[in-house]
């Protein structure tokens, strides 16, 4: 229970709050040095979901990244905790560790095999997205023809609900997201998607999607990437505009943070990305020079800024982490093996 005297105007408020970043944009590769995760830990983040694969890759690369990340995290238990449950995350906060679990962006990682959902779950994946920008064997992507969820996709939703994994609609097409939210018996999230009404971009989501997500009891994580915020502006003022818009539309209890922060990994990402330009189509500002990202170092100030905008302390705690925690507690409770 939080101390009622620790309000948003106090310097202890942020330290006391549970801080949940629903998605990092760390490029998934077994060679990435995960010491870069200290940036989140040093800035008071308590939980972070990092992706171990996306549809651009072969599924085997996802598995090798997952194996490398798991091993690294287990060898660095003094600073990090590989989290399986919400209780693990709360324990990590108590011990000043950063709790980590994994997500996968797109169902190509299943290699067409529904059984793989449980395998990924057993290895620490707690959130999966149905597509990565383009259509795949299960679902539609946001930069492709607007198709819905197919039979395989519907079976995946049911399996994720059964096994205890957060159902994530970011990067999927309009029709697919509405189908997912109809199918899921658990709250559904957009882990890192911004309102289209504030920034017109195909990766962002329209009011109907935001309302449908809230109707499931879910959360929309505000994305810190400059081209999804608008004009490559990643200031807290711009983040506040997105947070306020979603809050006014569906309530602050349906807003969270999924900054998609992409630190320098030392890998030659440019050549990797340019080998598959179809995933980042022309006209969507992916070629913006020097794309900026809001990062964990902004979070403490953002919490104070929310107070200045009239959000209550309870609403701010919700946006910082309690809202995503609520979804995780529901989605992960089954944890069937
Ligand atoms: Zn993403």
Tell me, what's the shape? globular
Helical run tally: 13
- Range of helix content: 25-40%
Decide which structural class fits the backbone. alpha/beta
**Integer-rounded radius of gyration:** 18 Å
H/E element sequence: HEHEHEHEHEHEHEHEHHEHHH
Head-to-tail CA distance between termini: 31 Å
Give the ligands present. Answer: zinc ion
Low-confidence stretches: none
- Largest sheet geometry: 7 strands, parallel
| Total strand segments | 9
Average residue pLDDT: 94
Strand content: 5-15%
Summarize the structure.
This protein has 13 helices and 9 strands.
Word description of this protein:
The chain is an alpha/beta fold and 337 residues long. Helix content is 38%, strand content 12%. The strands form 2 sheets. Strands 1, 2, 3, 4, 5, 6 and 7 form a 7-stranded parallel beta sheet that branches. It has a two-stranded parallel sheet with strand order 8-9. Helix 7 links the parallel strand 6 and strand 7. Helix 10 crosses helix 12. It starts with 11 loop residues before the first helix and ends in a 6-residue tail after the last helix. The protein binds zinc ion. Zinc ion (ZN) binds next to loops.
């Amino acid at each position: 229970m939080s101390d009622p005297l620790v309000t948003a105007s106090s310097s202890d408020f942020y330290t006391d709050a549970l801080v949940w970043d629903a998605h990092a944009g760390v490029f998934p590769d077994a060679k990435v040095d995960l010491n870069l995760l200290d940036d989140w830990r040093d800035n008071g983040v308590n939980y972070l979901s990092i992706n171990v694969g996306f549809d651009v890759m072969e599924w085997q690369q996802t598995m090798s990244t997952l194996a490398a990340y798991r091993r690294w995290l287990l060898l660095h238990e003094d600073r990090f905790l590989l989290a399986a449950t919400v209780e693990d995350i709360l324990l990590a906060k108590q011990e000043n560790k950063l709790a980590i679990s994994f997500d996968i962006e797109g169902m190509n990682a299943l290699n067409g095999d529904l059984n793989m959902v449980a395998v990924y779950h057993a290895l620490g994946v707690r959130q999966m997205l149905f597509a990565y920008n383009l259509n795949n064997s299960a679902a539609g992507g946001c930069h492709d023809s607007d198709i819905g969820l197919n039979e395989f996709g519907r079976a995946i939703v049911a399996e994720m609900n059964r096994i205890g994994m957060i159902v994530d609609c970011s990067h999927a097409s309009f029709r697919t997201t509405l189908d997912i939210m109809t199918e899921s018996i658990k709250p559904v999230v957009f882990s890192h998607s911004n309102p289209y009404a504030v920034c017109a971009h195909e990766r962002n989501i329209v009011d109907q999607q935001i309302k449908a997500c809230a109707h499931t009891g879910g959360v929309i994580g505000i994305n810190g990437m400059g081209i999804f915020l608008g004009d490559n502006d990643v200031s807290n003022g711009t983040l506040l505009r997105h947070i306020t818009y979603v809050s006014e539309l569906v309530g602050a209890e349906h807003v969270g943070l999924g900054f998609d922060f992409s630190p320098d990994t030392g890998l030659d990402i440019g050549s990797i990305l340019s080998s598959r330009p179809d995933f980042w189509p022309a006209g969507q500002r992916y070629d913006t020079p020097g794309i900026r990202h809001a990062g964990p170092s902004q979070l403490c100030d953002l919490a104070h800024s929310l107070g200045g905008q009239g959000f209550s302390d309870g609403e701010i705690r919700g946006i910082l982490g309690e809202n995503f925690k609520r979804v995780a507690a529901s989605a992960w409770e089954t944890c069937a093996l």
